[in-house]
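Bug #77: duplicate submission created two jobs. Keeping one. Sequence:
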Amino acid sequence: MNSWLKHLRTSIALNNGLVVITIIATKGSTPCTNGDKIVYTSNDAVFGSIGGGNLEFKALSLAKEMLELKGNSNQLIKYPLGATLGQCCGGYVKVLFESFVGNYSSLKGEDSWVEKVSRYYIESEDFILDSNHKIKWMENPIAFISKGRDYLNPKLELMVDEGIDLESKEKLKINLEEKLKKNILSELSDLVNLSKVEFKNNYVRALCYQLFEKNGVMKRKSVNEIIKNISKEDRSELRKAGVKIGRYHIFLPKMLKPSAVELRVKLWKLYFSEDKKYIIPKSGLNFLKDEIIKNNKFLLICGFENFGKFYVRVDILERLFLKIIENTKNGIFKIDSNMINLIGCSKENFFKLLDLMEYKPKKIEGDKDDCFIYKPKFQRKKMVKNNKNINKDNPFDKLSELRFR
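Kept job's structure:
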């Protein structure tokens, strides 16, 4: 809670005359923002700031004149900062002055201006969780979150002073906790539900648990043995729960939306502080080319798979795989512009990407199109292994030839 509200209450209790100075509009370059306040009292005490400089000096001078009038009043003044005040900022601000001298009836009681402001803090729908895990209201931090039961259930603590009483603080905390919970449930519904779903199949439960622990996206090869034991019926139920079992990854498609990624990563960083230095890729990009080594695990959480110096969004990677399947005939497929446009890279980088994905060029006599064939490394190794010469004098090699019924 801003300290100005605390000092306003104190001045009222001491029957000191006061002027509330509020920035209500700004344009261009200014040293202040909307909502900045000063509480100026009759004993020349100043609480808060509207940016300093000649603007603040002029505002305090007018406030002092208003207190000398011995009556409540208000004024709205527009200050062109460069032309009138000689400040280096070239914009202008509108400042509201509200003086309270002698008559405090509008500031006291349950329906008073002060109490309405206090309630507005509590009931406001504004809710911003910044990258430092602080919750802001009108650009001011009023609470912060810390580690809770898991990364989807953080704890919330207030950052308020004596500006509001204990009862109001409790109401404010409950209100913010509800908003935080509502925000997580709204943006990350599939991930939240993943931790609650109940499947009879142990392998399905194991898959859901690992997917939750991996923040909604993981490599398929890490759970291949689990997937082999999941029936078609259970796979259908997983799809209903929002789980995509793809060629390369297991993931929650809705959790790759920009707003969901932003919130997931913020909550994730509460538990993995070493990832705080990493930045979420700009939304709207399907392909990243990065010459600098990055944290592949962090980028996977953001929804990007690594291939050498390239990163491709996992859902786009699955769509590329489907296009390859559609265009494949006799194990060979042709490249078309739709594939390249889908990834969002140059033709040269697309061919490099295919090579990293173990698709190799295949020349076909009389065909000028770019053709590729899938040649994974493990197949070549398997062929070498199968062609291994058996030593007939070795009894253990002889055992390998036996076939039991």
